[in-house]
Amino acid sequence: MPAPTRLRADACPGVFATHDAADGTLARIRLPGGALSSAQAFVLAAAAGELGDGTVHLTSRANLQLRAVRDADELVRRLSAAGLLPAPSHERVRNILGSPLSGLSGGLTDVRPLVTALDHALCAVPGLAHLPGRFLFALDDGRGDVAGEGADVCWQALPGGEGALLLDGADTGVRVPVEKAVPVLVELAEMFARVRGSAWRVKEIDPAPLVDAALRRGNRERPAALPRTGPAPVGRLAEDVVVAAPRFGELPAGILRSLGDVVVTPWRTLVLSRTPQGLVTDPADPGLGISACVGRPGCAKSRADVRADALAVLETGVRAHLAGCERRCGKPRGAHLDVVATGEGYLVDGTPVSTARLAEELKGRQ
Predict the structure, then answer these.
(1) Tens of pLDDT along 308-344?
(2) What pLDDT score was predicted for residue 354?
(3) Dist. CA 200–CA 197, nearest whole Å
(4) Of 115, 190, 242, 290, which has fewest CB within 10 angstroms of its CB?
């Protein structure tokens, strides 16, 4: 597949390269594997309250965002001191998913050490600093949760100490032992960088050179139907493992400050050691299926205050994503109702609906 012709440069925001949103400067903080220590959480909470809008925003890649940042230089200073910016040159490419429950509940292999090793190895290769900010790595502990998130390159643990190599979420048939998982993912990223042209993602290129590179470190078998479990469910999963959901992925600074060590998931939830106050932990909560982009006033492209409208439909019990425009930012994976603002109401899976009738329409789609 020929790489697409890009009319603009990759503009994924970071902390050094921020984004100018309608509500001010937006900074995105990469968290390899979603891991955030209590000390780092305290620093982020203080930064959100003193330099931003008072809220930490979760992303679909297990990263965090601060909005309306008033002093970007001070933010860099604070995050650097907290160890959240260990490699400034590679800041925007440290996009690494890891199974959030790994080492805590279930799974075949604890991938947390692999996430750390991959982060270090990635940052040690100067040429990989120029990977597109959208390029995504994943390390799945065998349960099949992050393997379904469409990572460009993914190692998924299998029984017996080896793992499957996935490209764009599809099993290549290449099997790589755990001790070679990190080297092979780095090598694939280097190969992608050499052959990508103007492509941003593996799905935009012929994957053959990457498969050939992987075979130098592994064996080839017939591609298999691997486990896929999807998001970690909200609620208490073990005595000291709780999955909690901030509404719309918005985490007030005061709550973050009280949580202790946290694992951020790519489903805008948090893995904690105790039940928190102010977050959703009831798996039967009907609003868990409702997500929304930031909408007005934070986004100049949005045609509606979608989060205010989303609050009015929380009790419908459906799975729906409300978007302020056709870009559908923050859209979840999997089946859901597509709700897009038009300026005169919404399109629900293409059907025009007034804002006043939106809850009624969604409830009728159950």
Answers:
(1) 999 999 999 999 999 999 999 989 888 999 999 999 9
(2) 97
(3) 9
(4) 190
Contact between 13 and 27 (Cβ < 8 Å): yes
Domain ranges of the chain: 19-220, 286-363
| DSSP state letter for 303 | S
Q: Comparing C-alpha atoms, which of 205, 195, 131 is closest to residue 168?
A: 205
What parts of the chain have a pLDDT lower than 50? Answer: none
Distance CA(18)–CA(92), nearest Å, equals 10
- Do domains 19-220 and 286-363 share one topology? The answer is yes
Residue-wise pLDDT tens digits, 52-69:
999 999 999 999 999 999
Q: How far apart are CA 300 and CA 295, in angstroms?
A: 8
- Per-residue model confidence (pLDDT) at position 170: 96
How far apart CA 66 and CA 75 sit, in angstroms, is 10
CA distance 79 to 261: 16
Alpha helices by DSSP H, listed for 110-252, are: 112-123, 181-195, 208-215
∠ CA(8), CA(13), CA(18), 5° rounding?
A: 105
Q: Could you tell me which of 251, 244, 250 has the C-alpha nearest to residue 271?
A: 244
Instruction: Look at residue 334 in the predicted model and tell me its pLDDT.
Output: 85
Element (H, E) at 166: strand 162-167
Name the pairing type of β-strands 290-292 and 320-323. Answer: parallel
- For residue 336, the model assigns a pLDDT of 95
> In 10 A of CB 194, how many CB atoms?
11
176 within 8 A of 165, measured Cβ to Cβ: yes
Which pLDDT score is estimated for 333?
84
CB atoms within 10 A of CB 303: 19
Cα dihedral 190, 149, 142, 239, rounded to 10, equals: 130
Give CATH for domain 286-363: 3.30.413.10
